[in-house]
Task: structure prediction
Amino acid sequence: MTQSHQKARVSDLIQVMEDWAPAWTAEPWDKVGLMLGDPGAPAAKVRTALELGPRLLDDALNQGVQMLLLHHPPLFQPLETIRTDNPAIARLLQAAAGGLALFAAHTNLDAAPGGVNDALAARLGLIECKPLAPAGSEGQAKLVVFTPPEAMDQVSRALFNGGAGRIGDYQECSYASNGVGSFMAPEEGRPYIGRPGERERVEELRLEVIVPRAQAASVMAAAASAHPYEEPAMDLYPLQQPPAGFGLGRVGNLSQPEKGSEFAARAAAELSAGWAHVGGALPDTVERVAVVGGSGGDLLPQAARAGAQVLVTGEARHHTAAQAADLGMGLICLGHYQTEQVIVEPWARRLSAALESRGLICDVTPWSGRDDPWRPLP
Result:
């Protein structure tokens, strides 16, 4: 088998997910990433799903699936005991015994472009969508490296290989400006330019890149290894801006205005939500809609500020419906499962395309079983 057509490994799937929905864009309380398994293990047969239920686990093990990518983390609270009479822990042990890797992408997949909320907005026919609330706003930093011009390419390559320089879908982004640096090397030093014990003035480039804060230390170490100076100068500045395109929820417009009651009925039918709930003040005519997959009632104020007439989400608290009425907005709850299950098929397609573009062999399929823990009365 040639190098360009290798079977995928767990680490390959992790890298694809980091490129799309980086772990550092998840909410601070969240638990995401590889939760069970070996990054070096084979992952030529994988499946996307909402959460680790007994039917999914049994089917995956019977079908020889090597990795499950889940939206709901199968490990969230710290484990105090590991007992097989706890069904959730028993499933983890069963997965481990079967060599099944488990990976979770939760609020980072909610926030990512093309993630849960974009999939939900697309299913409901929204256009011109924007995030409701920024995500990952404290997860980035600006790294500045001062380097001689002739070393710019090798230092830049080290930065980019370490994960720096990403802005939205663009990669290997940097900015360089000219300047003059001065230094005096110690008597025992071996400077790249100049002589020990003498003051030196040299032309340098100020090379700037954006880097995830969680990766800053490793990126700086990589840059130092590639740098010709004994003591390269670097500055790290925290940023308070979200990564481009990332955010929780979406707000957009309908291509054509609809009656409020007809929009609510259409949304419920589109997501197979046979027991939808409507609260607040559903307008006669709807043009601008906000969506939040899962439990999104807390984003009602942001939806109001964005001009939405209706918020569509999975579930919300009693008082959120009262707040919607006070704001003159409609609140439509279509089920946690229904508003998040929309990502499972697009997730599989995106992974397949990304792996194929990298020359990796991997069979990615969505889990088609319906595992909604809620059901209407018969």
